[in-house]
Every structure is written in C-alpha cells, then in structure tokens.
Amino acid sequence: MKIGLIGYGKMGKAIEEIALDRGHEIVFRSNSSQPLDSDMLAMADVAIEFSKPSLAVEHIEKALNENTPIVVGTTGWNSRLTEVTELVNRNNGTLLHASNFSIGVNILFEINARLANLISDYPEYQASIEEIHHLQKLDAPSGTAISLADGILENNTNYASWICGVGEEPNLSSNQLGVTAHRLPDVPGTHTIKYVSEIDTITISHEAHSRKGFALGAVVAAEWIFNKQGIFTMKDVLKIKTL
C-alpha cells in the first residue's frame, strides 16, 4: 500500500519505520518545510496525519478533496467534528480518527467505561484522571484523557462535567470530574484513573513505553480503511463492542 505521511516528527518517523517493516511504501512526507498539496495526496492510497491541532481540519479537507482516505491521530480539533463529518459525507470520503491508536489504550477505554458504570451507585468514591505527556504535546488535556473523562460522564450519573488543571489539580465544583495534565521530558504517555473513598482506592492505568504502540495502531488503521468509505474510529478497527 502507498502511504503518505502528514507530519514528519517523532510520530511520523515511528509510523514510517513500522509501515516499511509491514511492506508498505511511503510516497510522501509532508511537514512545515514541505506543505501538503494535491499532487502528494494523489500518489497515496491512504494518508496518515499526525501534525498540529490548528492544521488537522485543513489537512482532512485537502485529503477529502483528492478522494484520499485519511487516518488522523492529531487531537485537539474535535470541536469541529460536526463540520468535518459534513465534509466527509459531502465528498463520499473516508476518515478514521482516534484520540489514541494504541490497542492497550482502547482496551483501557472499555475498562474505564465499565468501571464507571459499576461504581455509579457508590457516590462515596471520588473519581479523578491524571495524564502525563512529553513537553512537545501541544494540547492539554490530551485527547485520550478527554475520551476517558467522557467515558466516565456517560456511564456515571455522579458527574455532569469535567475540568482540567495543567500542572496542578483543578478546583472542583459539585458533580465535576477533575482531570490533571502534566508535561514532563520524555514521557510517551501515561493515563491513570482513580476512585478514592474513605476506606480504599481503585486505580486503573496505562503507561506507554514508547511511541511504537501508537504508530503500529495507526498503520493497522490505515490498512483497515483501505477501500472503505465513511467515518470510523479504532472501535471499528478493533471490533470493540460498546457496553
């Protein structure tokens, strides 16, 4: 398969290595010094996008205009998902987006939702989320942390909203879930969910050891959407059933 890389930082290079190992061809590498254009997209069977939140929608639109399926790993643009959905439908295009492409993290999403549902009847447990990423991570909280927070809100009636503190725990109002985001050197990504009561603590966590898990998931996603049409997530790729 011919793959184009939109964004050629550390993630782009990790994706390239895995894609080549799996027998694919990299037909273009787009970055700030070589902006994405229609000629690049015309060469690719699938594009994989890991760039900046401010550029993601522009890249999606360009790929849809060229009828190039696109896998998007950039987070921080989901406020425009309705607009992007309309673009995909209007162009009969193909988009797969995810807050995290790691298989382990996607399993964590399901465990998190199940735990939130189980503990909903026990309001004495106070939930919180902590996420830690490298200093180059531009959005806070991470897309993964937002997915985890949304998973709790959807399955636990004790919480109506979430609030994030960067570098410190946020001040909480009633029925509010706290998310704390830290940015430290050389941390690929760690996410921890805690439920604390007077008598005990329940903790679930995922710690990435490197970017390889994210990169592999992105390549697997690209393989999966080839010759498909519509909007997909990693749930579709991994065939994870909702609760």
Number of strands: 11
Largest sheet: 6 strands, parallel
Number of helices: 8
User: Could you give the order of strands across the largest sheet?
Assistant: 2-1-3-4-5-11
Give the radius of gyration: 19 Å
N- to C-terminal distance: 34 Å
Identify the CATH homologous superfamily of the largest domain: NAD(P)-binding Rossmann-like Domain
Strand/helix succession: EHEHEHEHEHEHEEEEHEH
> So what's the overall shape?
elongated
Based on the structure given, which CATH architecture of the largest domain is correct? 3-Layer(aba) Sandwich
Share of helix, binned:
25-40%
Low-pLDDT regions: none
Number of domains: 2
| CATH topology (fold) name of the largest domain | Rossmann fold
Q: What's the rounded overall pLDDT mean?
A: 94
Please indicate the percent range of residues in DSSP E strands (runs of 2 or more).
25-35%
CATH class of the largest domain: Alpha Beta
Structural class: alpha/beta
